[in-house]
Specification:
With 449 residues, the protein is mainly α. Helices cover 62% and strands 4% of the residues. A hairpin with a 6-residue loop joins strand 4 and strand 5. The structure holds zinc ion.
Length: 449
């Protein structure tokens, strides 16, 4: 469920990881979940220094001009662990959701929200701006602290137990505090502005709020790679001349001007490999996890870069923002309807009453939960198109299938998750489907739609 203290979504920043892992929260959420994955705290779910190895140099030296096909096989023991890991995380997600909904509904239905607003007013706080700040600040902090043990278990204990995390406890806490800072910095102004709109434009607030949220997501899309990501990770321009040459050749074949290609130090937190395209306009760039760069063969990396390039060719960052904008308008309109009903049902002073905040959170949370199969379905479709494009532009289906198999082993990802899990939580096709697609690929390009 959407927590009001984390209103900003990774997707809104135009992030498209190569696999379903939450990019910023690498090594945490295996799938798109309404709690950890969609809302954006890398720190909460972050992950001990990972010894960089020298195998990459060997691989590039030996494989570059040879047939470039290495033997990669699915590790059945890793698959067994992957299934177990996924099962535990699904249970944690369910617990998180149930507690969240129970808390929010309980807080409303028992009249606690009204009573807490009364308490704040009785402190002599007259300004509605300060009332909102106190209500959101205190309850937001309480909520964050209440979920701290669950976050710690999910993003520190569990990935360490399965050998995925490389993060120190200190590093985890650093991320946690950075994240909290970002949430306060971004979340407070948004909540204040929305409540101001609710007080002054009780009928049309959702239109203005939509404009505000969409504008914010565009701004964040631009600044994310240059201002926000560097708070957690380091982006370094890709120095590997051979790889650069390859991607420039790929880009040349598509007629697209390639965005900057960078490596990102995912190994500071996780062993899992990933790649991503992010940013907009001049900040647009493709980032290749060092965890991927150091473990995969050049041909495999080429197919993965081609997939990221496909997102650029297909304008997936921009289209994703339009889709997100439509979802925002629809969800705020439904929140508007829900608020009108809820204000009467729970005897609140009006939609601008800060005691109605749990209603707003409930509406947004329910809506994003109900919409998840749809938004994930959309994402899986775009990812399939990017895969097809990568196969077409590289003509290397074996390398692509090998890369997928390597990802399953290295990231402890399930090759064949249960269909309902894919339907509900996966924003990328499961790896067995991606391998299958490569094995049966007939040479088509895969229109971007
Ligand atoms: Zn992708």
């Amino acid at each position: 469920m959407v927590r009001m203290d984390k209103p900003v979504k990774l997707e809104m920043m135009g992030l498209h990881g190569f696999v379903g892992e939450n990019f910023a929260a690498a090594g945490d959420e295996g799938e798109n979940t309404p709690v950890g994955r969609v809302s954006y705290p890398p720190g909460r779910y972050g992950n001990l220094p990972y010894p960089t190895n020298l195998r990459r140099a060997e691989m590039i030296g030996s494989a570059m001009d040879t047939p470039e096909h290495s033997e990669v096989a699915v590790d059945p023991q890793r698959q067994e662990q992957a299934r177990e890991y996924a099962r535990i995380r699904h249970r944690l997600l369910l617990v998180d959701l149930l507690i969240s909904f129970a808390l929010v509904i309980g807080f409303l239905a028992t009249g606690a929200s009204r009573a807490y607003r009364e308490f704040i007013v009785n402190l002599g706080i007259v300004s509605p701006w300060v009332q909102v700040a106190v209500y959101v600040g205190t309850l937001g902090l309480a909520y964050t602290l209440l979920f701290l043990p669950l976050s710690w278990y999910r993003s520190y204990v569990l990935p360490h137990r399965y050998g995925l995390s490389t993060q120190t406890l200190r590093g985890w806490w650093m991320d946690w505090f950075k994240m909290l800072g970002l949430e306060v910095l971004l979340g407070f102004p948004i909540v204040e502005l929305i409540f101001w709109l609710l007080r002054t434009h009780s009928q049309s607030w959702w239109i203005w709020a939509s404009i505000l949220m969409v504008a914010l997501s565009v701004v964040l899309g631009y600044i994310f790679p240059v201002l926000i990501l560097p708070i957690f990770y380091k982006l370094t321009p890709l120095e590997d001349k051979e790889l650069r040459r390859r991607i420039e050749m790929l880009a040349g074949r598509t007629g697209v001007e390639v965005a900057g290609v960078y490596t990102i130090n995912l190994s500071s937190r996780t062993r899992a490999a990933n790649a991503v395209v992010m940013g907009m306009g001049r900040t647009k760039r493709i980032a290749l996890g060092d965890t991927l760069y150091e473990e995969f063969t050049p041909a495999e990396i080429e197919t993965i870069l081609a997939h990221e390039l496909a997102h650029q060719v297909h304008h997936d960052v921009e289209i994703g923002m339009v889709v997100q904008a439509l979802v925002t308008v629809a969800s705020l309109y439904l929140a508007h309807i829900f608020l009108r009903w809820g204000v009467r049902a729970f005897d609140l002073q009006g939609p601008g009453d800060v005691a109605a905040l749990p209603l707003l959170a409930l509406a947004m949370g329910l809506f994003s939960l109900l919409l998840m199969p749809l938004t994930n379905g959309y994402s899986r479709w775009r990812e399939r198109l990017a895969d097809r494009f990568a196969l077409w532009v590289t003509g290397r289906p074996e390398a692509f299938a090998d890369a997928m198999t390597r990802l399953a082993n290295q990231n402890l990802s399930e090759l064949e998750p249960p269909p309902w899990v894919v339907w509900l939580l996966y924003d990328h096709p499961p790896l067995h489907q991606r391998v299958q697609m490569a094995r049966t690929w007939s040479g088509d390009r895969g229109s971007p739609g």
